[in-house]
Amino acid sequence: MSDELIWRIAGGSGDGIDSTSQNFAKALMRSGLDVFTHRHYPSRIRGGHTYVEIRAADREVQSRGDGYNCLLSLGDSFARNPQEEAYYGNEEIKPLSENLDELREGGVIVYDEGLISEEDVEAVNLHERAEENDWHVFPVDLRGLAKEHGREVMRNTAGVGVTAALLDMELEHIEDLMSDAMGGDILESNLEILHEAYEMTQEEYDFEHDLRVPEGSHETEQALLSGSNAIAYGAIDAGCRFIAGYPMTPWTDVFTILSQNFPDMGGVSEQVEDEIAAAALAVGASHAGVKAMSGSSGGGFALMSEPLGLAEMTETPLVLVESMRAGPSTGMPTKPEQADLEHVLYTSQGDSQRVVFAPGNIEEAYEQTRLAFEIAWDYQIPAIVIYDQKLSGENTNVDVEFFDREPQPDLGSTLTEEELREAAHDNSGKFKRFNHEDAENGVAPRSIPGQKGGRYLATGNEHSPVGHISEDPDNRVAQMERRLEKLESIRAELDEERDSTQTYFGPEDAEYGIITWGSSQGAVAEAIERLNAQGHSVKGISVSDMMPFAEKEVTEFLESVDEAMVVEMNATAQFRGLIQKELGRFGDKMTSLLKFNGNPFEPAEIVEGYEVNLADEDRQPTAQVRIEPAAGD
Amino acid sequence: MSAFNAIGEEREIDRDEYTPGVEPQPTWCPGCGDFGVLKSLKQALPEVGKTPEEVLTVTGIGCSGKLNSYLDTYGFHTIHGRSLPVARAAKLANPELEVIAAGGDGDGYGIGGNHFIHTARENHDITYIVFNNEIFGLTKGQTSPTSPKGHKSKTQPSGSAKTPLRPLSTSLNAGASYIARTAAVNPNQAKEIIKEAIEHDGFAHVDFLTQCPTWNKDARQYVPYIDVQESDDYDFDVHDRAEAAEMMRETEDVLNEGTVLTGRYYVEDDRPSYSQEKHAVGEMPDQPLAERYFDDDAEWERSYDLLDRHK
Ligand SMILES: Cc1ncc(C[n+]2csc(CCOP(=O)(O)OP(=O)(O)O)c2C)c(N)n1
Ligand code: SF4
């Protein structure tokens, strides 16, 4: 029996690939397996080739893995004119042709014979290739089956029935999920199709392949969640009740989830005219006493540079999320990249500071969003959660109890009216909101408009303790130093008072280190596991604290290894650059493994990168991955 | 009881409460029209019963943006062109606050033009005062969106080739529900208009003509103005959109040629404000959002209540 199933459903956008795969993944999770989903889609609304991959095993799965072993190939709706039900143009049958390269030896193929003709199959040499790779091919008229019992669009259900039978998977969970999602005739027809497909497959085919659904069990209840869900729920639990945004993939997911949930919990969501406005609204709401956030992807975030600086100078707490996609400019809207790090760290004028967290998995996304709110409100500083299209869209199962946290609506360093009575005021009774005299950790507690005794002026200009515009040199230095002190205090808090936000992999005494950040974490973790299983001595650190930088932990890690490889999805080694800038050394210890073709790393690519680097060979691992040698190499 | 004791407080309010007791003194040039706006606000606010602590004035950048440095309410001096989005959100967060946004014509009609149109469209319940001096003051006299065609400045030395923006018509077309123009040289009218604007439930746009003796000596703001409500020559119904539009068109055609008309141009009393509209569709809470953070009994939702659909 196979130890993991990687099931891929391929077809055209609009073929119901998303909902079908979501249900299939949940069914696998309910049967006791750990799951990880990966979605590939082009930047268009209808048509175009798309697939979703679901990896399921009786152990933690942290990446999409390498290749896959079961293909359900629907007809590509892109190739057909929906009105005339006829092929148009000379589109290739992509659900087959685009997917064969990554199918593993011994894999299973189910394709829709009703839409993909024998000539099409010949055109991609399916039979020869199947022979070579020991693939087991099952042509089934999914379209016909669906039409017979319902409507043609239900061919995805027929496909699920066929693959479920081939994999020896029980239908119970799929049926439950279908009943939750639909009703009436539609449910009836779908169930009929599902059963018909299942039974027909059992009767008509010999299952000569080895691939079966693995067996597994969970000790606790699980939920299947994307990174965007985790960030949105992290914000809700952090007490965030105001969001303003402007749509831009992939940030739109977080924006949508919160917009859909806020009305039920008394929160306010605003879709506004542009990203400058979006972040400025978040600043306005926060100023008026509500935990607020905004966010965008690279191009939209560029517009937020101004309000970001305003929040810093006026010490208005603010959380922004930045969901990276491949750039520059509009780049590749639906493809992940980790190339906005420097943009997020340094955008906005002046000696401007913010806190930046880069979660690497679903739990971290939730946790660090909460943390971002806490730090932002305690220290009155903007905090940014940076993640990417990959983490945003991938679904993994998480222990439900993990989310069992108390909500945190606390407004941080904000005074009550009683406290304001005791606070320092100037001679005219104005509250010394930016008082640097007894500021602790650089933080001067604030008041909220409408509070008695709290009147002050917030301004993006340099200002005196009560907020009057001031260019007095002594005041400037005092205010600047107070603001700068915050980041050091935050660093101390993260180092000393909290559990590490960095994640470690592999044996502590390993000689070789892999350093990564953000969503590349899963693939690195898996590569490290494999390398150690092969007898190498490798460990890893996935860094989340970008600003203030995890100085202590990364230094310790780099000191403990002979050599290190920094893995990240960009072309200019931005994270390696950050390490060197922050630590001022280790330039000769770090090699970079870079990928920037729009697809995330797969574990095998990291394994190969390691091998090439270790062998000190003068070659690149693959055409899609680059090695940037260490300084002095 | 509100968590914000300053809100809704009823007492005699002295004009002087709005003047900072300690520095700063206004740094505006002698004779600047901005003094007029400051003065009318200081007169209007006590008359509408607003205490300094229940008012939030949000300004942009420019000479005009310094308004709240000299007006002692809660204040947020933001960045160039962005007063409106900040003000809008503060109002949504706490609808009980009296939110007044202000800025210059460069700030509000130029760099912030997009926000102006959308704030008017949505009819947020805030007052917006634009100090219209037809020039960039703070950056030393460049042509602004309301400078007349042919206006010469250091950056348009041959005279501007651009037709000036029509603030009133733009505002009307965008959807503002109260539109008036007043002038610093007429303090009595200005005070009355500002009072109305504050009391209006919806987006109240006041195009406030403010002379800039330093950079814009030719501007028409110095000439005697005619109050459209007082003059028999201009008989129209401020509640009638078409008539208002026609009046605005005429005014904006002649503004730079010698006649300056001021007064109320459009008043729409029955249009729901944005928060009312938002409330009607179920997207605004009944209680001010900001208050919940000070309410120990408030129930805060937990994310695990949302997890059912993910199981
Ligand atoms: C983003 C940005 N661009 C430019 C400036 C420079 N700037 C400051 S005030 C101003 C123009 C102000 O003109 P206006 O809004 O008409 O106000 P006034 O000074 O006339 O009252 C400009 C361009 C700035 N501060 N920020
Ligand atoms: S430059 Fe013009 S607008 Fe600015 S303060 Fe002087 S007179 Fe007033």
Please characterize this protein's 3D structure.
The complex is a heterodimer of chains A (633) and B (311). By secondary structure, chain A is α/β, with parallel strands linked by helices. Helix content of chain B is 28%, strand content 14%. Chain B has helices at residues 34-47, 83-93, 105-111, 113-122, 167-174, 187-199, 241-254, 274-280, 289-292, and strands at residues 55-59, 74-77, 98-104, 127-132, 178-183, 204-209, 225-227, 260-267. An eight-stranded mixed β-sheet of chain B has the order 2-1-3-4-6-5-8-7, sandwiched between helices. Classes of the chains: A alpha/beta (633), B alpha/beta (311). β17 of chain A pairs parallel with β2 of chain B. The structure holds thiamine diphosphate and iron/sulfur cluster (SF4). Thiamine diphosphate binds next to β3 and α3 of chain B.
In short:
Chain A has 633 residues and is an alpha/beta fold. Chain A is built from 22 helices and 24 strands.
Which characteristics define this entry?
heterodimer, A: 633 residues, alpha/beta, seven-stranded mixed β-sheet, B: 311 residues, eight-stranded mixed β-sheet, 8 strands, 14% strand, binds thiamine diphosphate, binds iron/sulfur cluster
Give the biggest beta sheet of chain A: 7 strands, mixed
The parts of chain A where pLDDT drops under 50 for at least 5 residues are: 84-90
Average pLDDT for all residues of chain B: 94
SS element count, helices of chain B: 9
| Greatest contact between two chains | A-B, 83 and 67 residues
Structural class category of chain B: alpha/beta
Number of helices of chain A: 22
Shape of chain B: globular
Radius of gyration of chain A, in angstroms, nearest whole number:
27 Å
Ends of chain A: how far apart?
46 Å
Which geometry of chain A do the CA atoms define?
globular
- The portion of residues forming beta strands of chain A comes to 15-25%
Q: Which percent range describes the beta-strand content of chain B?
A: 5-15%
Biggest sheet: strand arrangement of chain A: 11-10-12-13-15-14-21
**Overall strand count of chain B:** 8
* Rg from alpha-carbon coordinates of chain B: 20 Å
The percent of residues in helical segments of chain B reads 25-40%
Mean of residue pLDDT values of chain A: 93
Bound molecules: thiamine diphosphate, iron/sulfur cluster
